[in-house]
Design brief:
This protein is α+β, with helices and mostly antiparallel strands. The chain is built from 2 helices and 4 strands.
């Protein structure tokens, strides 16, 4: 299902955050609405649908942020909606 991501991050983070979110969410049957932002030194990932959750990440290195984002989002989504069912 489609994943709609709104917001803008600094260029080095924007593409990696979008890539990780699409990798984690595209295979799911739910439609996700996610807002990303970076006020101050924190990366904010705000899920606005189908669940309401705001996540804050500290870190400036793309690989560090990507790894933490993948782990946390994967755990939350699996907990909320169950693991992806493979055919």
């Amino acid at each position: 299902m489609p994943v709609q991501i709104t917001g803008v991050l600094p260029r080095q983070l924007d593409s990696i955050v979008r890539k990780v979110l699409h990798q984690m969410l595209d295979a799911r049957p739910q439609e996700f609405l996610v807002e990303i932002s970076r006020p101050h030194a924190e990366l904010i990932v705000h899920f606005q649908g189908p669940l309401e959750k705001r996540l804050k990440f500290n870190g400036t290195f793309e690989t560090e942020v990507a790894r933490e984002l993948q782990a946390v989002v994967g755990e939350i989504i699996d907990e909320e909606f169950g693991p992806i069912q493979k055919p």
